[in-house]
Amino acid sequence: MSMKLPFFNNKKINKNEEPELDNIPKHVAIIMDGNGRWAKNRGLPRVAGHKEGMDVVKKVAKTAANCHVEILTLYAFSTENWSRPKSEVDYLLRLPKEFLHIYLPELIENNVKIKTIGNFDVLPEHTKEAVNYAKEKTKDNDGLILNFALNYGSRFEIIQAVKQIISDMNTSGLTMDKLDEHLFSEYLYTTGLTEPDLLIRTSGEQRLSNFLLWQIAYSEFWFTDVLWPDFTEETFMQALYDFQQRKRRYGGL
Ligand code: FPP
């Protein structure tokens, strides 16, 4: 027998309903999971799920912007995803280009700024070119930051931060007493961004999969069984609504 989680007992919302704009999470991070299962359920190749998932990205970005979310960070390709079959890896790394080819004009029109986190330099040239072009075109926008985690892995990020800190200690006068949580954060890919207030993972999995391990220390988690290609504006707004009911105490009372 399946038990209802408390947040499913809360009010259900629909997409025509105006969200209450107080206490909207500033930064929402999403682990977009379940594309492969969505495709398998329909007898389609896995990549069909990724393609469908790409269109959901656009819808969710639009809803996030409408709800005044400031940053939307999406786990599009992890450092572990290289171990998938080459054809799937190639497909996943073509998706940013395809997405931007279709949606960049609309993103620009809506004042969206494109950013990435992750080990960008080793991505294929065509991926880097498309993303760099979009970053350049949107660099002065001050609306929603649409932040793609591309070749992102939290442990790699932390190790490279530690290496850079050691290097700065050896060469740039950084001393041990200056190193605190705030300074450490500045060595991460997410420097300049606030920490996620809300972390969403789809498809019924409840793991972090090496995503933003440092940054989510105080994030609220929201899990849904919905597979990413089936994720809708309403699902997103339900997550925002449920976030608004949470009490964040940051270790206090
Ligand atoms: C996990 O589902 C999903 C990914 C590894 C890729 C996510 C990518 C997208 C949703 C498209 C990205 C779009 C842009 C614009 C870059 P899975 O394949 O692990 O699903 P499964 O667990 O059901 O097999």
Can you tell me about this structure?
It is a single chain. This protein has seven helices and six strands, in the order βααβαβαβααββα. By secondary structure, it is an alpha/beta fold. It has a single domain, classed as Decaprenyl diphosphate synthase-like (Undecaprenyl pyrophosphate synthetase), CATH 3.40.1180.10. The chain has a six-stranded parallel β-sheet, with helices on both faces. α1 crosses α2. The chain starts with 26 loop residues before the first strand and ends in an 8-residue tail after the last helix. The N terminus is likely disordered. Farnesyl diphosphate (FPP) binds next to α1, α2 and α3. Farnesyl diphosphate binds next to α1, α2 and α3.
Total count of strands: 6
* Subunit organisation of the chains: single chain
Bound molecules: farnesyl diphosphate
By CATH, the architecture is named 3-Layer(aba) Sandwich
- Unreliable stretches (pLDDT < 50, length at least 5) are 1-10
CATH fold-level label = Undecaprenyl pyrophosphate synthetase
Specify the CATH class.
Answer: Alpha Beta
Structural class, by secondary structure, is: alpha/beta
Gross morphology: globular
Lateral arrangement of strands in the main beta sheet: 3-4-2-1-5-6
Q: Strand fraction band? A: 5-15%
